[in-house]
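Friendly challenge for the regulars: who can give me the structure tokens for this chain first? No prize, just bragging rights.
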Amino acid sequence: MFNDFKVTGGRPVYIQLKEYLKRMITNGHLLVHQKLPSTRELSFLLSISRNTVLTAYADLEQEGYIYAIKGKGNFVSQVETSKAPTIELNWSDKINDQTFLANELDLMKKGVNWNKETIFFTSIAPDENLFDVDNFKRAFINRMSIEGNAILNYGYAKGYKPLIDYLLHYMEIKGVDITNKAILITNGFTEGLDIVLSSLKKNNGRIICENPTHHSALKLFQLHGFEIHGIKMDDDGVHVKHLEQSLAEREYDFAYLIPSYHNPTGIVTSSEKRMELMDLFSKFNLPIIEDGFNEELRYSGSHLAPLISFAGLGNNVIYISSFSKILFPGLRVGWVLADKDLIYYLESVKRARTIHTSTLDQAVLYQYLQEGYFEKYLKKAKSVYKKKYEIAVQYCKLYIPFKRMTGDGGLHLFIELEETIDSRKLLEKCYQKGTVFSPGDVFYTDGSGKNTFRLGFSRLKEKEIIQGIKIIGDELKNMMEAKK
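First reply, four minutes later:
Bragging rights claimed.
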């Protein structure tokens, strides 16, 4: 007995011993009232210090697993270890339709197997090699020294007030009139959208958006039971005439738009078209959910204000964003900016679901932003991403015989091929050569886009971008040659 105890690094030995003895007791290997070896004997048997055994025994006694009799030693306590009759449920029979739909739409489960040699154009997450870890540590230490006790306790559903105030100022600088507006802090963009969808009344169950659009948003729309109507995109944003025609023909509960560095097309809606859109939606009295995706990753041209800034004192725009695609996605901090009366109700839904977003995460992010580290990091990140973007554009033009390529900045490009080319078949061939990308059909509201794909380059080295694009181009040319 005890000869299977093995010490592993990185965890206090007394805890390992305590957990080992707990398992022995709960599994019935040590019987009730059985005497344990003395601390001296067990330390000798296991080649560990006697103090380690003393500490483990003291903890076990305090937790009720053993008891001590003065002058006699330590004994196993009466611990209930009997098991109920074994039953085995078929959980698939108990899963509801919404969960089956979520599983069906889960791209992460259906992706290709990971291999460190594979060139992955599938991600549009930030490059972790750029993360400003040293300054993040400083921000953490500084915030903990200021109010460490408070931020480790429960927080507020609406969010950490210093961060809310910072973000209100941040949005005001972008041109937003924050009069009668408020912010709700969320666990990233996705939770923000989910809370909004859960809170708005479903009058006709239809939403209108760009086609293609953000896959995660499409998933949530479907899970909430909405009928999705997509409007095709021009090179400067959604096709306004088609949008107006659709709005005139049918009623919708709201519109969902990504005006900056659109996912997946990378298109930036022009300032003129943003004004057109706001006039059009005002005419039809329709709420807008604006996805503030990657607004900061502008590599050239002038600043373009978000749609919510065009609303002025109006309250028909719900703006949802996060820093996930440019800063630290592991923090999972996003926000909803909207009319204060709407935020009042969203706060209650947030509280009912998750109580609040991690106060520690919010507080450290606030300190990082407040101390100016974000601006410094953004300059560096934009410089690196701009170079990757230019390389991707250059070599796509050189190697890939595309019909159309879009992407005005950000972390990805969108490629449209000839109608006869199936991007999933192209993906299969490229995968065999060690390169993968995101087939475009998953972003379309109507199942079209089978001749398109998204090329994310943010996490790749420059040589990988060039090599991967060449592989895609070569395989595409082979497919096109075979069709002649």
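The first strand starts at residue 66 and ends at 69. The mean pLDDT is 93. Your move, everyone else.
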